[in-house]
Amino acid sequence: MALSGGTTDRGSHSMDKSITLPPDEIFRNLENAKMFAIDIGGSLTKLAYYSTVQHKVAKVRSFDHSAKETDGDLLYEISVQEEITARLHFIKFENAYIETCLDFIKDHLVNTETKVIKATGGGAYKFKDLVEKKLKLKVDKEDEMTCLIKGCNFVLKNIPHEAFVYAKHADSEFRFQNTHPDIFPYLLINIGSGVSIVKVEAEDKFERIGGSSIGGGTFWGLGALLTKTKRFDELLQLASKGQHTNVDMLVKDIYGGAYGSLGLTGNLIASSFGKSATTDKEFSKEDMAKSLLHMISNDIGQLACLYAKLHNLTRVYFGGFFIRGHPVTMHTITYSINFFTKGEVQALFLRHEGYLGAIGAFLKGAEEDSKLLRPNKVLLLSH
Ligand code: ADP
């Protein structure tokens, strides 16, 4: 499945599926000033940039003429119209390649009218001088949480089939949700390098109610230590091929079977990596990567469920680049949420999981620009 379009990395960066922007006021007249925004996180730099695509659209009109001239046939009139569609494109770079990212911006997005760059994430502070020096633009910082939530609200309300439920064993693995104006309240678990847990009650009302340092950076970091593979995608590939039961201690390894009176099946993980302390054999990279992916996804799943219950929330969305639309990750998180809440809480994933902050920062810029609109420049946007 191509969840976010081309999700495989080509070297240092990869492009992801673009979205068509809804025909809102704020996207009209977007010229060049704030056509892009950047989100520099702990691991990855995400870029969202705007372009318009002009294309011809065939419009078909049918006429049901009375029998006389046409023997009752339907007549069709086909006209071709020009439409301009506004699109938002995405690209991500590992932070180690931030200079490549800045070169991309300089070569493709900056023009003589560009004066500022909208930036969010910790890197908007850490790399401010580098960005300003290299691009000769002023960094316009936006708060990370505000952008994250703004981006999340936007995609949930506007982008068709953005959110979906993952069900590994169902007939259709992905159950896409319709967009809905009434999205609140919900819980957002953003799994980036670390984890942020945010309760969102209205467009501008949210609170970061928790977090964890055991997140995507932990999978990447511990995974690199265990397998000597520093590439995230390779780690995921290893995990896909592994058997976690070779490394983890299961309930049945302790009980010889299920612990029936507590409702714990024999195959449940009792202790992640529990077998490694007592077994002398070497463990395969695949098995260790799988066990690690399970450990982190289960842990976050349980945290999500506890926070959801504590705050009476039944919808939990997962964002952040750790997920990467990866079936094992989504299944483990879904399984653990179902297990702990007995199905009361729903785990939902997002097609643009990793770009919420960048989308939010872009929208901030677009809103600011729309206040400076020049009325003679109207762009038609089609959805
Ligand atoms: P941050 O804003 O903290 O960088 P992200 O939402 O971008 O957070 O997610 C970063 C995490 O995504 C990494 O720690 C890693 O677990 C995972 N990840 C996904 N794709 C990649 C990749 N190509 N390279 C490195 N990490 C990746």
From TrEMBL:
GO biological process, one term: coenzyme A biosynthetic process
GO molecular function, one term: pantothenate kinase activity
InterPro entries: ATPase_NBD, Type_II_PanK
Pfam families: Fumble
Keywords: ATP-binding, Coenzyme A biosynthesis, Nucleotide-binding
GO CC terms in record: cytosol; nucleus
Official protein name in the record: Pantothenate kinase 4 (inactive)
Organism listed in the record: Sinocyclocheilus anshuiensis
Gene: pank4
